[in-house]
Write a structure and sequence with these properties.
The protein has helices spanning 12-24, 39-46, 51-79, 96-107, 129-137, 169-181, 199-211, 227-237, 252-259, 262-265, and strands at residues 2-7, 30-37, 85-92, 111-115, 142-145, 156-160, 185-192, 216-223, 242-246, 273-276. It is of the alpha/beta class. The model is unreliable at 260-266 (pLDDT under 50).
Amino acid sequence: MRKILIPTDFSENSMNAIKYATELFKYNRAEIYLLHAFADEVYDAKSRLANEIFDDLQKKTLAKTKAALENFREKIVDFSPNPKHNIHTIAEFGLLVDSVNDWVEKENIDVVVMGTKGETADKKITFGTNTLQVIKYVKCPVLAIPVVFGDVHPKNILFPTDYQLPYKRRELKLVSSIAKCFVSKVDFLYVSKFSSLSLRQQDNKNFLEASFCDNQISFKQENGTDVTKAINTFVIENPIDMLIMVNTRHSYLENILYQSTIEKIGLHIDIPFLVLQNLAR
């Protein structure tokens, strides 16, 4: 069984992510949790309100959120009537990242799914603020879905790796099961100017190979040091349907998330992006 948490702001982008998730996991028994954390909405108005009015606003926002979530739930059942899926709604007075982390721990969530952008859908940016915060700080794999993405069946998956750190079996099992459902090919891409691997790297590569023994996989190396260019080129030259990366200390992805913006780095992500957190859970 899969446990899937989907934060929503009730935007079209959010609904697109929900549709993608229900199709991606249509073959799995799944508990799907729709979450809307609304503390920011209430706090935005707090400075202008007396305490009594603020409390009343909080109650009204809770009621409105519950109604909106139920409306979303009914829409999901209409377009994806899957008897394998149970859909739950969570309306919570809390901050997004805190609420997501709380429910990840409480329900032992396998993956968080959300749109790359929220209600604003600024075309100049790759990821909205909320999505970036969730990718950075939530202790669970996060699958970010672009605003416009048609085919939900990931036939070709790109997984860049430097083989430096051992991966967590549970996270790899998630990827392997997705690939198995859709008979996907997984390409592991190693970018380095060195042709040989260290003993540690070879051990980690062997672990990857063993973890994906039931899948079609390939190991490729791009000579050089420009990881961004190698990823962009591979995505352009191959029909890649999903990109997978690991957010861990001193990793390429961490450098993007914490030291600059994805736009400045030049990594162009317009396909579903699964971020593994490499945490034991």
